[in-house]
Design goal:
Strands 6-7-8-9-12-13 form a six-stranded mixed beta sheet. A five-stranded mixed beta sheet has the order 1-2-3-4-5, covered by helices on one side. It is about 25% helix and about 25% strand. The mean pLDDT is about 95. The protein is α+β, with helices and mostly antiparallel strands. The longest helix has 12 residues, at about 170-180. Strand 2 and strand 3 form a beta hairpin.
């Protein structure tokens, strides 16, 4: 597998901004640049990656708060999330202020994503799944060829995304996990928005928040 990854924890929430690239072409993407843009740019330079796009899983400030600044610096498009998160992206500055974080720019993506779309990371194609619940417009990126999913805050090792927001939907989140993610197979590994990754089989068997299918 030629796809390489570097995780860059950003914001006080220790969000896993991911730099993913093809180690043959050295082209790649940044996923969920929530903030600390100088640190992200330093990682890009350190690894010698040519970034072709910025991918956003959902509109929470710790995932999207730095996307506008990074887009301006790199001159690349922002893709995602689903348009259902428009109200979150329209209020990134307010989100940052409410949490006492450095200023963030409100964001309009260059491309909204929907179920059935695809994005490219290096030379690899990833399918887009719309997985609401944690956020209405949350999307997940999946490569069946690489057995890799980028799940944002839908699923974690031993946990699932929060749904105690006014727009949260616990039933929708579990439906997405059970009916969109788990059928992809136990050997599907995933990168998540906070903490260490895992694989779907481990979570299916041991995650206390999932319960029976």
């Amino acid at each position: 597998m030629s796809l390489k990854a570097a995780i860059i924890p950003v914001t006080p929430f220790e969000q896993n901004c991911a730099l993913l690239w093809d180690d043959v072409t050295m082209e790649g993407v940044v996923v969920d640049p929530g903030g600390d843009v100088p640190r992200i740019r330093q990682a890009i330079a350190q690894h010698g990656v040519t970034v072709t796009a910025i991918l956003i899983t959902h509109g929470h400030m710790d995932h999207a708060g730095g996307a506008g600044e990074l887009r301006a610096a790199l001159g690349v498009p922002v893709e995602g999330p689903h348009t259902a998160d428009r109200m979150l992206l329209d209020n990134l500055a307010k989100q940052a202020s409410a949490y006492g974080l450095p200023p963030a720019r409100d964001l309009v993506p260059d491309r909204w994503l929907a179920e059935g779309d695809t994005v490219r990371i290096g030379g690899d194609e990833f399918a887009v799944l719309h997985c609401p619940g944690h956020a209405p417009g949350h999307v997940v990126f999946v490569s069946t060829a690489l057995k890799l999913a980028i799940v944002g805050d839908v699923l974690f090792r031993g946990s699932i995304g929060r749904t105690d927001f006014p727009y949260g939907d616990h039933a929708a989140l579990l439906d997405a996990i059970h009916n969109k993610l788990m059928p992809l197979g136990d050997d599907m590994r995933f990168l998540c928005g906070h903490g260490p990754g895992s694989d779907f089989g481990t979570e299916r068997r041991s995650n206390p928040f999932l319960g029976p299918d």
